[in-house]
């Protein structure tokens, strides 16, 4: 009787070559953390100056390699990356963003290792010419790939996820005033200027409320000036960079995502995990996750539309509690690490077997 051969352990290289921290970098870090302890050996290749490098160092089963990348032309970085991959011998390389694909493509081709890639945004696909399998986070990104003639068998949609454990039930903080919370990088596309204008209109309607904004970025000073001009000093608080996301979200009754554009929006998943009712603009990413049953929706870049959605959330306690619980259930079933990581592992193993 033939004995069944053991499946060799999966060896996976995760490659992210940017220095800052946004949604793409968060997925990279979360994947490294989620794969740690899953019986997967991971080589995490990051930029030497990656701001969240400490979060992936010391994880069981994760080896961290840092590379200095001076630009897309940098031959030393290319050589160093190829040397790291040759030494580790991964079953699959998973790269993130255009720079990761641009550097990993020639190395993967030369070493004969299959290459998977996350787009994270809608960039020119010339940087992804050596990718074997695209792993877009949304159906809209899948359509983008198909429009640019990427074959269907080279695409598998796997949503982004959050490591936050789902709360047992949606709850609200105590207090007489309704508290709205919002979180993200303080940049133009995130729409915090729209949120401030909408919040002013909400107060003018007679709603008793406060607004907490977490995050930092280049528009911080301008947003503070706007808040002063709108006479919001006593009702809006800028909380700075937030490390304890669940703790921050627990201070609010309703989470607001005011983005003008959002390829996915992991912060919305974090709000769902915490059972928070959500007000969101109808951006491409959030609209893959949310709908009218799960959230209050507004038009991007429109303060009046956002005010109406926030007002609806403020007016009906039972309805917003129902939406918060529905969103929590959807997170638990579809967007938690327990729901998503097995899908990544299946894709990796299938790609490795096909190589």
Please compute the radius of gyration using only Cα atoms: 22 Å
Q: Give the overall shape, derived from the CA principal axes.
A: elongated
Report the count of strand segments.
12
Helix fraction bin: 25-40%
Strand order of the largest sheet: 3-2-1-4-5-6
Number of helices: 12
* Beta-strand percent range: 15-25%
Task: Please trace the helix and strand order, writing H or E for each element.
Answer: EHEEHEHEEHEHEHEHEHEHEHHH
Tell me about the largest β-sheet.
Answer: 6 strands, parallel
Mean pLDDT: 93
Uncertain ranges: none
Describe this structure in words.
It is a single chain. The mean pLDDT is 93. It is built from 12 helices and 12 strands. The chain is of the alpha/beta class and 355 residues long. The strands form 2 sheets. Strands 3-2-1-4-5-6 form a 6-stranded parallel sheet, with helices on both faces. Strands 9-8-7-10-11-12 form a 6-stranded parallel sheet, sandwiched between helices.
Helix/strand layout:
Elements: E1 11-16, H1 23-35, E2 41-47, E3 62-67, H2 75-88, E4 92-96, H3 97-111, E5 115-118, E6 133-134, H4 139-147, E7 178-183, H5 192-204, E8 209-214, H6 220-229, E9 236-240, H7 245-249, E10 254-257, H8 266-273, E11 278-281, H9 286-289, E12 296-298, H10 303-315, H11 317-335, H12 337-354
Parallel strand pairs: 1-2, 1-4, 2-3, 4-5, 5-6, 7-8, 7-10, 8-9, 10-11, 11-12
Helix pairs in contact: 2-3, 5-10, 8-11, 11-12
